[in-house]
Amino acid sequence: MPYTAAMSPATDTLSCSSCRACCCQLEVMLMAGDDDVPPQFIEQDAWGGEVMLRLDDGWCAALNRKTMMCSIYTVRPLICREYELGDHDCLEQRKRIPILSLPREQA
Ligand code: SF4
Ligand code: SF4
d(Cα 23, Cα 59) in Å, to the nearest integer? Predict the structure, then answer.
């Protein structure tokens, strides 16, 4: 997960750099070892487990909205670390959000 992708119309290359962080609207459960995630970005789910806080628009609270990149990249949860660019789920998420190729604002 972001770094963020789209099929570039020019190159047909999949890249997180032009994606609007589609996968950062998915639920992210915290696992053993995710101890460095800042607590302000964590909430409890209905079963008492820890998940990344998502805001009213559905995106993870740790997503920088100007850059659409992860603001806690170096300490992001294991699930985010293991999310594979270009796998089935990534491609499905990219289809789900119709703003893939909008340019990001500069930080
Ligand atoms: S949906 Fe895929 S391309 Fe987009 S940010 Fe996530 S991993 Fe990258
Ligand atoms: S922690 Fe970072 S990579 Fe993971 S969902 Fe949130 S913004 Fe995306």
Answer: 9
Q: What is the CA(22)–ligand 1 centre distance, in A?
A: 6
State the residue range of the domain holding 65. Answer: 6-96
Q: Is the CB of 93 under 6 A from ligand 1?
A: yes
Centre of ligand 2 from the C-alpha of residue 5, in Å: 14
**18 falls within a domain:** yes
Render pLDDT for 25-41 as a digit per residue (tens, 0 to 9): 999 999 999 999 999 99
The finding on whether 28 has its CB within 6 A of some atom of ligand 1 is no
pTM value is: 0.81
Average pLDDT over all residues of the chain: 83
- The count of structural domains within the chain is 1
CA separation (Å) from 48 to 28, 37, 44, 52, 105? 14, 17, 5, 13, 36
